[in-house]
Design a protein that fits this description.
Shape: globular
Largest sheet: 7 strands, parallel
Helix content: 40-55%
Distance between the termini: 21 Å
Strand content: 5-15%
Strand order of the largest sheet: 2-3-4-5-6-8-10
Oligomer: single chain
Structural class: alpha/beta
Bound molecules: 5'-deoxyadenosine, iron/sulfur cluster
Order of helices and strands: HHEEHEHEHEHHEEHEEHEHHEHHEH
Length: 356
């Protein structure tokens, strides 16, 4: 398997060090690994925030169930329109993200939306879903309707910390099972964690990286924790913005070094904490960016954390293209940008089947 075996102690040292030379080497090695494993190319996914309705109540999240706020769900036509926009702009791939809902009406709505958007874009787009925990049956239905990839953050791989960040009825085991079910249903599977949130230690983060490796994950979408004051965790102290952003960059670099050929996102929350966050993410080995193509009308209501950037989709796409060009990278226009890691697994599986 194409991973580099950093030990837990080495990971902890690299997450903790203040040695400028060691940090420069870490960044350069991660970027060189990214160039070798994935080439000088950045994939842009059009992010569509289809609803901020959520049945969950995570203590850190601004769209948690108990928060009183304007709730919205895009119509099927609006989702199709966003997909068309992404397609016209040459994005090649979209992410449908929402709070969690598991009712039959919602499951059907997503299935209908998938079918409709593929019809409208002649199946040119690859679709990633980020819609939380669902049953294996639902994952299978959405896969059959045309979803290819699924992102489900474990948030933390530490069971006790998970319990601190969530109400008692949010089950760590159910989340783990959901990640396994996604693989069973045939998705390319992504996960990720919050970085720099209250109670989290460097040891927890090192274990998160080992967790990604052991799960043989295809895609990683980690993000720095950003305070939302109107949440139960909102009054707890955290390190300053730059410290959390830099911790995230180290995590990106280490994930690239360890997992090599996975897709790794430079997430929006990083640019909330550091104006050059996205470029830095790319320089530390990320190869995916996600310009937001949600209609501006609803953008402010997908209020996960404070200070979330709200620039329009043209601007977001232009910004990212320019930044990538400045680093000598190309954008993979009209490309699906499947993780090489998943393609290799697929090849291995096919060979095994052919030989059996
Ligand atoms: N800071 C950063 N990310 C957050 N998310 C939720 N709340 C916050 C926050 N305060 C992220 C979670 C979730 C995704 C939808 O948003 O990691 O998986
Ligand atoms: Fe809902 Fe996700 Fe926010 Fe938790 S983190 S409250 S599941 S949107």
């Amino acid at each position: 398997m194409s991973t580099c075996d950093l030990t837990r102690d080495e990971l902890i040292d690299l997450l903790r060090t203040d040695d400028v030379h060691a940090l420069k080497l870490l960044r350069e090695n991660a970027y060189a690994t990214k160039l070798r494993a994935a080439g000088p190319i950045v994939y842009a996914r059009g992010l569509i925030e289809i609803s901020n309705v959520c049945i969950k109540n995570c203590f850190y999240c601004g769209i948690r169930r108990d928060r009183t706020m304007t709730r919205y769900t895009l119509t099927l036509d609006e989702i199709v329109e966003c997909a068309r926009t992404a397609d016209h702009r040459g994005l090649g791939s979209i992410v449908l993200q929402a709070g969690e809902r598991q009712d039959a009406k919602w499951v059907q709505f997503i299935e209908d939306a998938l079918l409709a958007l593929h019809r409208a874009t002649r199946r040119r787009l690859h679709v990633t879903l980020s819609l939380g925990e669902q049953s294996l049956d639902t994952y299978k239905r959405w896969k059959a309707a045309g979803a290819h990839r699924y992102l489900l953050r474990i948030e933390t791989s530490n069971r006790e910390l998970y319990a601190q960040w969530h109400p008692a009825d949010h089950s760590f085991d159910a989340r783990l099972q959901a990640l396994r079910d996604l693989r069973t249903a045939g998705y390319q599977v992504g996960t990720g964690v919050l970085i720099g949130a209250p109670g989290q230690t460097i040891e927890h983060l090192a274990d998160d990286l080992l967790f990604f490796r052991d799960l043989d994950i295809d895609m990683i979408g980690m993000g720095p924790y950003v305070v939302h004051r109107d949440t139960p965790m909102g009054s707890l102290p955290v390190e300053d913005d730059l410290t959390r952003a830099n911790l995230m960059l180290r995590m990106v670099a280490l994930a690239r070094l360890m997992l090599r050929d996975v897709n790794l996102a430079a997430t929006t929350a990083l640019s909330t904490l550091r104006p050059d966050g996205r470029e830095q993410g790319l320089l530390h080995g990320a190869n995916v960016v996600m310009p937001n193509v949600t209609p501006m009308l609803h953008r402010g209501d997908y209020d996960l954390y404070e200070g979330k950037k709200l620039c329009d989709s043209d601007h977001a796409i232009e910004c990212i293209t320019m930044k990538a060009a400045m680093l000598g990278e190309r954008i993979g226009w009209n490309r699906w940008g499947d993780p090489i890691h998943a393609l290799k697994r697929h090849e291995r599986d096919c060979t095994a089947t052919a030989m059996s």
